[in-house]
Amino acid sequence: MNIITFDSDEKLNEAAANIIVGQVQTIPRAVLGLATGGTPVGIYKQIVRDYERGMVSFRNVTTFNLDEYVNIPVDHPESYHSYMKSHLFDHIDLPESQRFIPNGNASNLDDECRRYDEAIELSGQIDLQLLGLGHNGHIGFNEPSHALIKGTHTVDLAEQTLEANARFFASIDEVPKQALTMGVGTILKAKKILLVVKGADKADIIKQALQGPITTDVPASLLQTHPNLIVLLDTAAAGKLA
Ligand SMILES: N[C@@H]1[C@@H](O)[C@H](O)[C@@H](COP(=O)(O)O)O[C@@H]1O
What we know:
The structure is a single chain. By secondary structure, the protein is of the alpha/beta class. It has one domain (2-198, 215-233): 3-Layer(aba) Sandwich (Rossmann fold). Helices cover 31% and strands 17% of the residues. It is built from seven helices and ten strands. The strands form two sheets. It has a seven-stranded parallel β-sheet with strand order 1-10-9-6-2-3-5, sandwiched between helices. A three-stranded antiparallel β-sheet has the order 4-8-7, with helices on one face. Helix 1 crosses helix 2. The longest helix is centred in the N-terminal third of the chain and has 18 residues, at 9-26. The structure holds 2-amino-2-deoxy-6-O-phosphono-alpha-D-glucopyranose (GLP). 2-amino-2-deoxy-6-O-phosphono-alpha-D-glucopyranose (GLP) binds next to helix 5.
């Protein structure tokens, strides 16, 4: 595991963007796993900047997002479909047919999850998976539980997740209660994982994830088993690491 700490948000975003852009420069047909949430916003901004400077093309890239809310209109400003368009997809040359996000409005969610796993399988392996970290240790929307699920599945969001994500909605009652998420099996199958964590409010959970026991109670702790994990932290998030 390679942990790097940054004293500015700008440097952290640049470093993360360099890893992602570098991956595409090395393998133009790269398969990228993408994340949403507050953490990657600045990273996507930097990637768009690099694209505008002509440093990289996403023409041959395929992307798979980690998750999407269930029963949120695709064009709702807080759907992850909208998020990806406004922060990244609308600004780069990634063809629409090569962007995958689970469909939380599918009439049969189980079929949708199977379809999503098949699409990932068909693309080969995810070369680089970008991850954020939930306050309760979730990755994607794999919430703490006595058991974790390997493939894409429907999940009931934890109370803490609803509270954390309420900041994006008018009130907590408007936060969708369920989501579709890639499973931990799929996440761990990625050739390389880039975990990005920011803020003092995540100092405890990142310590548990990286230096605590490997447990399904902290889904991110499973990342300790991954052979090619890069962790980028700001100094606030790194504050409690040994
Ligand atoms: N499903 C997403 C995760 O993929 C994300 O990593 C996490 C942290 O989000 P943030 O970066 O806003 O703290 O929670 C969200 O709800």
